[in-house]
Amino acid sequence: MSREQQAVARARKAFETGRSRPLEYRIIQLKNLQRLFIEREKDISDAIKKDLNKSEVGTQLFETLGLEGEINLAIRKLKEWAAPRPVEKNLLTLSDTVYIQPEPLGLVLIIGAWNYPWAVTIQPLIGAIAAGNAAVVKPSEVCVHTAKVMEDLLPLYIDKELYPVVTGGVAETQELLRQRFDYIFYTGNGTVGKVIMEAAAKHLTPVTLELGGKSPCYIDKNCDISIACRRITWGKYTNCGQTCIAPDYILCDPSIQDRVIEEVKKSIKDFYTENPKTCPDYGRIINQRHFKRIMALVGDSTVAAGGDGDESDCFIAPTVLRDVKPDAKVMQEEIFGPILPILPVSGLDEAIKFINKGEKPLALYVFSADEKVISRMRDETSSGGFLANDCLVHFSVSSLPFGGVGNSGMGCYHGKFSFDQLSHLRGCLIKKLKMEGVNNMRYPPHTPKKLGWARFFFLTTFDLGWAGRMLLLALMAVVAAFVLQVRETQDSDRLRSRVKNSYLISVDQTQQPGCRNSSVVIKIKVLHMHFIYLH
Ligand SMILES: NC(=O)c1ccc[n+]([C@@H]2O[C@H](COP(=O)([O-])OP(=O)(O)OC[C@H]3O[C@@H](n4cnc5c(N)ncnc54)[C@H](O)[C@@H]3O)[C@@H](O)[C@H]2O)c1
Ligand SMILES: CCCCCCCCCC=O
């Protein structure tokens, strides 16, 4: 058995013991994970410093703070999330217990990416633990030092059989993908996303794909350009542009382009000093392959700021490109580096048209003081997430689903969305072995009269206001009367009924003109009734 097979087999066996299921056990694991972030803060930030030159404070701000928040939330809400969720019933199931029971899926494979190696690998793990699953964790090999720390530390804090860490690159990941999982949660680029989905299809395993793409950023003339550019500069150059939701490029009116460039340059200086290379808050490109790829994107455009780099140090200066053409190299792929192209457009209409010509992005940003501009941008485009007048921060809101649409991914997570995504939401209906008469309408022999009743029971909906509750009471009386009536017909020799004032219920099924469905009209003529059982 390969190392990967062994880890999968052990995790599966551990899941089958049932120990990941009790809420108390899940909470213990989550608390242990929380302890890891408190006690091993230094190990974590030292490794990330080596991988991406993130500062200690930057690591906490962008990686572990969010994880601690997600763990706290899961611990606080777990009982509520895992509880049966009552749902609305139809008339037919009025006396039944109908609810959704979240249950663990089983064994989850989590494949992480390198750019925020803790955030994007551990955040799904929090969801997997909270939902009662086992999980094999595969950190990105590209983040060499962090992968090692994760492999060393996780088993010291959480159940190492239920949640094993498997390190390695393409070969190891593909070996994992040959195994059977109950869910695969992948974060990374779309090309590999297709490989993941193909492998998952072999076992009919459902997937979440957290991918990327080119996230547009439109700056309206009607806005505070200085503030807009400060926020965009932060969103773009954080982690040296290696952020899945970084604003990829700016669209703006040509008349504000110079001002935008000046303000971005000013913010770069404010954030990263005159010399970003020596600034502890300015990151590095992950490796020389990506360094070369990013530098090659600049070639055919005009540099307005930065543009220089040092391959030996994987440093690329915060760069702005002006008057960029849609067919420029930098516009052909997700940049994932500190290059900010500006494409002049004639206004909102052209911006929307341009965005809609591309793939659906992971995030879409608009800066404007005009609510109509913001609404039009939201309503006339599609993207994983939508932000007006800021960048990135939606990632930190646990009550928002985070994920892509179309080419930027499928599925979503964070907070309760992680719990739901990694649970099976099992529909449950618990009926009593009583009131068999009600079921006659669905049993053979099928007759138009029974169908009439079935239409009524299946299609009647109620809006439970005050009037709705009154109606519900009346309907319950109808159901009770119907049950008794059916029973009476069935057992007429045993049961004789005497109904005062002649007539109980009649059902009129009439086809309404201009309406495809027939409507059921109930007439209750007499509510006063007596049933006498004769033995
Ligand atoms: N949506 C999100 O939350 C999110 C977060 C981070 C990054 N991203 C996106 O991820 C991309 C950057 O990450 P990346 O793809 O360079 O990360 P990566 O190179 O770390 O790859 C991601 C994972 O896929 C595995 N992998 C790589 N090639 C493989 C193959 N051929 N077969 C099987 N597994 C393979 C790696 O081992 C790794 O664990 C960007 O597009 C970015 O936008 C998205
Ligand atoms: C305070 C804002 C936090 C933003 C963190 C962004 C993480 C993005 C993960 C994808 O690359």
Helix and strand layout, with pairings?
Layout: H1 3-16, H2 23-39, H3 41-52, H4 56-82, E1 85-86, E2 97-104, E3 107-111, H5 117-130, E4 134-138, H6 144-157, H7 170-178, E5 183-187, H8 190-202, E6 207-210, E7 215-219, H9 225-237, E8 247-252, H10 257-272, H11 288-298, E9 302-305, E10 309-310, E11 315-316, E12 319-322, E13 339-344, H12 348-357, E14 363-367, H13 371-379, E15 385-388, E16 409-410, H14 415-421, E17 423-430, H15 448-459, H16 466-490, E18 495-498, E19 505-511, E20 518-524, E21 530-533
This protein binds nicotinamide-adenine-dinucleotide and decanal.
Decanal is lined by residues 62, 115-116, 119-120, 243-245, 392-393, 395-396.
Domain Aldehyde dehydrogenase: 5-423
Subcellular location: Endoplasmic reticulum membrane; Microsome membrane
Main location: endoplasmic reticulum
Mean pLDDT: 90
Task: Name the CATH superfamily assignment of the largest domain.
Answer: Aldehyde Dehydrogenase, Chain A, domain 1
- What is the count of distinct domains? 2
**In this structure, how is the largest beta sheet organized?**
7 strands, mixed
Number of strands: 21
| Adjacency order of strands in the biggest sheet | 9-12-13-8-7-14-15
**Gap between N and C termini:** 72 Å
Count of DSSP-assigned helices: 16
Beta-strand share of residues: 15-25%
CATH topology group of the largest domain: Aldehyde Dehydrogenase, Chain A, domain 1
Low-confidence stretches: 491-535
What is the SS-derived class?
A: alpha/beta
Dominant shape: globular
Bound molecules: nicotinamide-adenine-dinucleotide, decanal
Provide the CATH architecture of the largest domain: 3-Layer(aba) Sandwich
Helix percent band = 40-55%
CATH top-level class of the largest domain = Alpha Beta
